[in-house]
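DM from R.C. (forwarded with permission)

"hey, sorry to bug you on a friday — could you get me a structure for this? deadline for the figure draft is monday and I only need the backbone to look sensible"
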Amino acid sequence: MPNGVAVIDSIGGDTLERSFQTVKKTGKIVSISGIPNGRFAKENGLSPFKKLLFSLASSKLTKLEKKHHVQYTFLFMKHSGEQLTLLTKLLESEIIKPVIDKAFYLR
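My reply, with the result:
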């Protein structure tokens, strides 16, 4: 798998952890299935206690961030027609170009 500048993870677990090896230095990993980290708590105005809990729970991911010189971000998903419209525009204008690794045909 070629190295890229970003990974969008929707699986979590081992797949998320392997993503750190596929992103170029200073790249970004965004996960909707991983663990929130301390940065997520801070950016979302959560309590210091939750920041501490998220920091502890995501310590393995923080170590991988430092080791591979990338940034990990947890994205809390919510329903948003506005965001889907923006995403559609970005895809249609090819500002975002998805890379398809494998295709599975269903019968």
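R.C.: lifesaver. The longest strand covers residues 23-31.
me: no worries. The chain has one domain: 4-79.
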